[in-house]
């Protein structure tokens, strides 16, 4: 006798409420894989936000295609190191070139930090995961990046300092929130920088070690007080490594949904 090897098809009935719930679940999973990424870029003394927007075009990774960038401009303020001339400045800078031991104005730095924190707070309130928030800054903007990260009450994705300096004395370390200390710092500095001396950049290492903050210090031989494409490419890869994504687990769950609808 010949056996019938055919298997009966099994039909699964799903009511419309269940169907809508499953569709909503699937869409939310897709949304998670395209999690919002926020990159805040802070310019240097006398510069402006729009003048730095070209930097965004250097970040071409598919992982960052949905990133939201913001390039704010500092307010106009008198600057001591420039004989009180009024220019775009996040905070007062008593002297330049900046070297180890240069004077700093901590009170104006802390005031500027409040503005940065307001921007970050608004972004997180819109649903962005704090760990997908990155602050980057060049020169004075780099100093403000460091200050903003170290005084923020939450752990964020990271802070990238380019040719910046430490705008604090070590006495303020006790004020750094514990969550802030978990935010990684990437420090990039050219060895030929004659405006913010390379040694001033290196001074960040013992300062951050004392604070208990992880810092990766990258030296760029021959680079002056400017940005290089090599520097930007490394920052891009550094951000990518720190993105919070559940893409692999989401794909598995979406495959489960597909199997459910095609069960037989």
UniProtKB/TrEMBL annotation:
Native source organism of the sequence: Camelina sativa
Pfam families given in the database record: Abhydrolase_2 (PF02230)
Gene3D superfamilies per the UniProt record, alphabetical: alpha/beta hydrolase
Domain Phospholipase/carboxylesterase/thioesterase: 38-240
Protein family (similarity comment): Belongs to the AB hydrolase superfamily. AB hydrolase 2 family.
Protein name: Carboxylesterase SOBER1-like
Domain of life: Eukaryota
Coiled-coil boundaries: none
């Amino acid at each position: 006798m010949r056996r019938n090897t055919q298997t009966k098809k099994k039909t699964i009935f799903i009511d419309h409420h269940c169907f809508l719930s499953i569709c909503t679940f699937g869409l939310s999973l897709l949304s998670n894989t395209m999690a919002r990424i926020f990159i805040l870029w802070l310019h240097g003394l006398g510069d402006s936000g729009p003048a730095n927007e070209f930097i965004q075009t250097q970040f071409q990774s598919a992982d960052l295609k949905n990133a939201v960038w913001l390039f704010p401009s500092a307010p106009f303020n008198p600057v001591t190191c420039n004989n009180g001339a009024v220019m775009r400045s996040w905070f007062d800078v008593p002297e330049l070139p900046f070297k180890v031991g240069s004077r700093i104005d901590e009170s104006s730095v802390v005031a500027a930090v409040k503005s940065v924190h307001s921007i970050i707070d608004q972004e997180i309130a819109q649903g962005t995961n704090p760990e997908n928030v990155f602050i980057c800054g060049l020169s004075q903007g780099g100093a403000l990046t460091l200050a903003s990260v170290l005084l923020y009450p939450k752990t964020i994705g990271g802070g990238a300092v380019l040719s910046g300096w430490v705008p604090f004395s070590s006495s303020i370390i006790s004020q750094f929130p514990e969550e802030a200390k978990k935010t990684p710092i990437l420090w990039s500095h050219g060895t030929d920088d004659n405006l913010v001396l390379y040694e001033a950049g290196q001074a960040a290492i013992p300062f951050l070690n004392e604070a208990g903050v992880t810092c990766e210090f990258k030296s760029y031989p021959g680079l002056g007080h400017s940005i290089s494409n090599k520097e930007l490419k490394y920052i891009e890869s550094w951000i990518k490594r720190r993105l919070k994504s559940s893409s692999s687990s989401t794909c598995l769950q979406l495959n489960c949904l597909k199997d459910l609808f095609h069960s037989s």
